[in-house]
Write a structure and sequence with these properties.
The protein has 409 residues and is an alpha/beta fold. The chain is 55% helix and 6% strand. It has a 5-stranded parallel beta sheet, sandwiched between helices. Helix 9 links the parallel strand 3 and strand 4. Helix 11 packs across helix 12, helix 12 crosses helix 13 and helix 14 runs antiparallel to helix 15. The radius of gyration is 26 Å and the shape is globular. The C terminus is likely disordered.
Length: 409
């Protein structure tokens, strides 16, 4: 992967390039960004840049050609030499071709895995073929996507002590082709106290050894590892970057792309999931839910919960995030008037006005907090029936003081 393949983060990419060009590359980097911010994609592009042959050899090559040009012997060859400004990996040398296929022998990967059968001592290399396929298909995916990709079902992924021993062994050997040996560890949050096995290697690494940790939550990383890393913050993508990428790469209509980019809130992985399920009528589902809460009663609520519990975890999260998105827009309209309504002119506008009638500002903010909490529990495999029953009751109690509520039709 090259930096140009990432949909945004121009400043982050330039910062990483400058670190190499100015010889200020730390031996341990922590790429920190929330889910869908492209931390893993940036790490892959950076690793390819570090091993790129033309990045490190072009100056001497150009000097040699210039000397020959001075003699007049190779003028045509020099003129034909393509310009290379080192603003990205070349993408065509042997190292880049291998790195782009995730088969470069000096770029190692570590990630959460699970034992396929009792007694197994799993290591990342046991799943390397799946990992390569996953990176090609979902470079912005999260841990849930990865564990589903390798059929972990409800099993917990971990980076084990056996993995740490394997890392120590691999990085103690000489590099095969590149001047550098690189370890990309994705989600070090899944590294328990076994991670202390890596401390000596991180603190006193062999020459030209580079650790790249890609994380979402620094509070879950071992402090002993965190303190030894240089931080590289990966910000969310802008709405414009997500919007443009959906239109360019997925031929999404401008209106749908804009709506998805707003709901995803800088999370490109979420944007792709929303696009995948763009045919879902979340507003109809939300109307039915609110009607069951505020008008038709417990029987309708039980029926609705049964239906929502049949959906997968990802669809449940998208539905709740859609509700949150509508609530946020409703608050903006309430505070700033119609001019603040980015959905003006589509079917969400009338829905937001109705929300403002049944719930005050404090109530809407309370519901947003309840939904955020529910999403957090869904991500941790909460029982969906129990969760949505509880959420239905809690939202009802938030808005019950507004007793005169018309049907959501």
């Amino acid at each position: 992967m090259q930096f140009k393949d990432i949909i945004g983060h121009t400043e982050v990419s330039q910062h990483l390039i400058d670190m190499v060009q100015r010889n200020r590359l730390s031996h341990a980097l922590l790429f920190l960004g929330k889910e869908g911010n492209g931390g893993l994609a940036s790490a892959l592009a950076f690793a390819q840049y570090v091993v790129c042959e033309r990045v490190h050899t072009h100056e001497s090559h150009s000097a040699s050609l210039s000397a020959k040009l001075g003699t007049g012997s190779l003028e045509e060859d020099v003129l034909d030499e393509p310009a290379f400004d080192k603003k990205d990996s070349c993408g065509v040398c042997s190292a880049c071709l291998k790195a782009s296929q995730f088969i470069h022998p000096d770029i190692h990967y570590s990630y959460p895995v699970f034992p396929k059968k009792p007694g197994d001592k799993p290591k990342s290399t046991d799943f390397i073929q799946d990992w390569r396929s996953f990176l090609k298909a979902q470079p912005y995916g999260n841990v849930y996507d990865w564990l589903q990709f390798i059929s972990a079902e409800n099993k917990q992924g971990n980076i084990t002590a056996f993995e740490c021993n394997d890392i120590n062994l691999k990085l103690s050997l000489k590099s095969f082709e590149s001047d550098f040996k690189i370890l990309i560890m994705w989600m070090p949050e899944y590294l328990g106290n076994e991670g202390n096995k890596l401390l000596k290697l991180i603190e006193e690494p062999p020459a030209n050894t580079l650790f790249i940790f890609v994380a979402e939550n620094e509070s879950l990383i071992l402090q002993t590892i965190l303190s030894r890393c240089q931080l590289v913050k990966i910000p969310p993508f802008s709405l414009e970057e997500i919007d443009a990428s959906l239109v360019k790469h997925y031929e999404t209509g401008p209106a749908l792309a804009k709506q998805i980019s707003m709901i995803s809130e800088g999370n490109y992985r979420e944007a792709l999931q929303l696009l995948l399920h763009a045919e879902e009528d979340w507003q109809l589902l939300l109307r039915e839910w609110l009607n069951s809460m505020l008008r038709t009663g417990p029987v309708a609520q039980v029926k609705w919960v049964e239906e929502i519990s049949k959906l997968g975890r990802e669809k449940q999260k998208q539905f709740l995030r859609y509700f949150n998105h509508i609530l946020h827009l409703s608050i903006k309209v309430r505070l700033h008037g119609d001019t603040a309504d980015p959905a003006k002119g589509n079917k969400d506008t009338d829905f937001m006005l109705r929300l403002n009638k049944i719930a005050g500002l404090a109530q809407q903010e309370a519901i947003i907090n309840l939904i955020d909490e529910a999403v957090w529990h869904i991500e941790r495999n909460a029982n969906s029936k129990m969760l949505f029953h509880a959420l239905t009751i809690r939202i009802y109690h938030v808005v019950r003081d507004n007793a005169l509520i018309s049907a959501w039709r």
